[in-house]
Amino acid sequence: MANAFAMIMAGGSSEELSVLTEVRAEAAVPFGGKFRIIDFPLSNCVNSGIFNVAILTQYKPRSLNDHIGIGKPWDLDRAQGGVRLLQPYRGGRYGDWQKGTADAVRRNLDFVAQQDEEHVLILAGDHIYLMDYRPMLRQHIQSNADLTVAVRRVNPHETHRFGIVTLGPDDRIVDFREKPKRSRETLASMGIYVFRKNLLMETLQAHEEYLDFGRDVLPAMIAQGWCVRAYAFPGYWADVGNVQAYWEANMSLLAEDPALNLYDPDWVVHTRSEERAPVKIGGNAQVGGSLISNGCWVDGVVERSILSPGVRVAEGAVVRDSVVLADTIIEAGAVVDRCVIDKRVHIGAGARVGDGDDNTANKAMPSVLNTGLTLVGEHSVIPEGMVIGRNVVIHPESTEKDFGRRKKVPSGADIGVSLR
Questions:
Q1: Model's pTM, two decimal places?
Q2: Would you state the pLDDT for residue 2?
Q3: Among 9, 171, 221, 237, which residue's beta carbon has the most beta carbons within 10 A?
């Protein structure tokens, strides 16, 4: 399987992830306590024996670049192959901002041409899954396909979020529709592609109007009669491109027998880990059904929640059904209920975040934030005694001045200024 190299699309922002991507690229968003989303495709590559990996960046890449570094946690700090971060650039025929996934690869065709491998594995940097790519590559080569697309079944009510494929004989894809409003078919593209390298280069060079793999390249190749085959993936896979999907994917880790097994010694998810002290659970603390990362100090109540490294929950505080990212402090008597709290937030004593039964949708994101989730951006300060309703967005770096004299924030409101 050394006959393939990987390119991971990690330049996206995803406005539907709201405050989480106001400060970082989607691929750099923390997940599952100690990980970041990019860790999953990177770990899948090395666990599949692929040690030549390029990561294509664009939107707010600093956090992603810092996390990946020279690739040592994934054994990708190599003189030959290893991990390369391909940044946007100016100059030359293809120098400019990337306008889509296919366009991003086109602007790095000089890199593609230099690789010795005959096949290119194109991966999304914003999906959560554990997958051995070797069977897919094996099928692609043995079937002499021009393009192989990984697919899996999705909920019929969510087909509008995905590219939907129709299969003919021998797993050949005969039709593809990008995010249809309605569909009887439920077989979705996972955004994982294997191309013959020469064909990929010829296609992108000949058709500069092709900007996106799902919207442009895949339908065109099917229409032109190229051999496009499907590879069915039976395992867990989640596209966490909106805050509801992100929260649900995190919460699924708390199941008694989670579909995503982070504890398999034969398929380790590697990450850049900080040196932290062990978890400290106080004598009056109550913790149940949760994931608690190193460096956390819990004296209060934590129920069905995920705490990233360094979170502190003071005595009398309650965290329930929430995802709390690194180094957040939750003071005594505060309640955090059904929230996503970004890094280094300070929640004052007695504050209630995610309060009440009013599920009024967020005014700025009514179609995305309407299930009762409240979001608090990085480095924000929630004043003591503040009551914040459901479907509220507190933008990064919000301070007491952004709240003014109010003591309560109604459901569906926005506080602070977006950093996009």
A1: 0.95
A2: 60
A3: 9
